[in-house]
Specification:
Maf protein; 31% helix; alpha/beta; single chain
Length: 192
């Protein structure tokens, strides 16, 4: 069975990805390999951050690796939080802090369109491969649902009456930006 390392410590993200890549591919987390250091994310783009994280693990540990980076891009805020989605409310902020800041900045705005975009960078035998997923939707005025993570309680995917946080994981994976990018990664890996 082929082994790949996913360069993240985010348990929710690992669960989502493992659910999609569950056939014939072993996914190891950083925790599985006892890798504890913080991986730098200093790029100005989500492509750059995903490549930076995957390259760091590949070069330091000589393991085939993939990493993703995701941004939420809100039209009324000129694309904010974008590449800074994970630390929108500052370094060491929580998901709740980020949602609070976004809802505050969206107060009184009628234009609620937004999209999530994920880019996965796979580094295999030193070669880079990129896979992208994007989902359009709207930003709610308050939180809905207890599932998911990140901005899921305030993001309603297009044509869905439920937020990402209200959808069961299997349903969310069918629709989500990360699900789309991960299925592209899976097709590539299965096709080998």
């Amino acid at each position: 069975m082929k082994q790949y390392v996913i360069a993240t410590n985010n348990a929710h993200k690992i669960e989502e990805i493992r659910q999609i890549l569950n056939k014939g591919i072993e996914i190891l987390s950083l925790k599985d390999l006892n890798i504890r250091e913080d991986i730098p994310e200093t790029s100005k783009t989500i492509e750059g951050n995903s490549e930076q994280k995957a390259r760091y693990i590949y070069e330091k540990y000589n393991k085939n690796c993939f990493a993703d980076d995701t941004g939420l891009f809100v039209e009324a805020l000129n694309g904010e939080p974008g590449v800074y989605s994970a630390r929108y409310a500052g370094e060491n902020c929580s998901f709740e802090d980020n949602i609070d800041k976004l809802l505050m900045k969206m107060e009184g705005k009628t234009m609620r369109k937004a999209y999530f975009r994920t880019v996965i960078c796979l580094i295999e035998e030193g070669k880079e491969h990129f896979f992208e997923g994007k989902i359009e939707g709207t930003i709610a005025t308050e939180r809905y649902g207890k599932g998911g993570f990140g901005y899921d309680p305030i993001f309603f995917p297009k044509n869905s009456p439920l937020s990402f946080a209200e959808l069961p994981l299997e349903e969310k994976n069918k629709l989500s930006h990360r699900g789309i990018a991960t299925r592209k990664l899976a097709q590539y890996l299965m096709g080998k």
